[in-house]
Amino acid sequence: MMNFVAIDFETANSKRNSACSVAVVEVKDGKIHDSYYALIKPPGMKFDYFNIQIHGITPEDVRNKPTFAEIWPELKLRLENKIVLAHNASFDMSVLKYAIQEYNLVPAKFHHCCTVSIARKIWPELENHKLDTVGDHLHIDFNHHNALDDARTCAAIPLFASEKIHVDNFAELVQKIDVPVKPFKC
Question: In angstroms, how far is the first alpha carbon of the chain from the final one?
């Protein structure tokens, strides 16, 4: 069956260790099973105006929220030994990596895959494969750059893709379209 988790981060500034929100959506047997969302107090509380304009999260929103280290036990449980998807996975995996390193935490063990790569293989006709473009193509109504909405939309991509090419599980999907699944390295 289709079993995986989708993750999305928003950052406070251009530094990859500045996560200010995270969401994880778990898919079990091809259906959304569970979700998790947290606002995060980033190191140094430095927010760039550009980032605030993208996601709308301000220093006031996170001033009394937990740090990444404080949410890591819960987040780690949600990722451990799973297939983790992200739209533009290199960004989200680097945010995760630098946040783990910032607090000297023990990394989770999992494999990850990029839904941009899946979308490019399944819908090559799209003008681009940004999350909002793919979401529009799939008729998903979502608030782009809200981590939970983005993670839900990311989770929908392999579900729609598997229907289009008639496969029943994630391993079959990535094998059939030749998309890599890589171990997380921290």
Answer: 29
What torsion do the CA atoms of 96, 102, 106, 112 make, to the nearest 10 degrees?
A: 10
Q: Say how far apart CA 151 and CA 4 lie, in whole Å.
A: 12
Q: What is the pLDDT of residues 103-128, one digit of tens each?
A: 999 999 999 999 999 999 999 999 99
Instruction: List pLDDT tens digits, range 145-182.
Output: 999 999 999 999 999 999 999 999 999 999 999 999 99
CB within 8 Å of 106: residues ≥ 6 apart? 76
Q: What are phi and psi of 102, to 5 degrees?
A: -55, -40
96 closest CA partner among 80, 114, 72, 115: 72
Across the beta sheet with 111-114, what order do the strands follow? 31-39, 19-28, 4-11, 83-86, 111-114, 182-183
And the tokens for 71?
């949410």
Amino acid at 82: K
Question: Is the whole model's pTM more than 0.85, yes or no?
Answer: yes
